[in-house]
Fold:
Amino acid sequence: MKQTPGALGYVELIYAIQNKMLYADLKNAAGEFVKPALESVTAALATADVPDDFRFSMTNAPGKEAYPIAGATWLLVYRDQKEVAKGKKLVEFLKWALTKGEAMANALDYAALPPALQQRVMRRIDEIKY
Structure:
């Protein structure tokens, strides 16, 4: 994209920032032009319709500050862990990632989960058995 004049594409925000690529403000569902930024992605997450199984799309999420094209990273984890030691370490890691790790998200140029979604994910982690 960067090498082809006039080309359009979609890349991860951190990739665009690190590679000094141009990116666009987009008109969202509220009719506002929003800059792609960590805060506008978190705003989209905060208003996205996230069902209990966490399968969702954040395309054109409602909200004045929500960036209209945003994505998330998912982990597929078995609720019933077969090995106690590995299951325990997995739960410890997931809880760390959602608390102390989440506190580092912005410094690493990743959008943080909004608190309400973070709490929902933590409750789901608490359901993992080992």
Remarks:
- The radius of gyration is 17 Å.
- Helices lie at 13-18, 38-47, 84-101, 115-125.
- The mean pLDDT is 92.
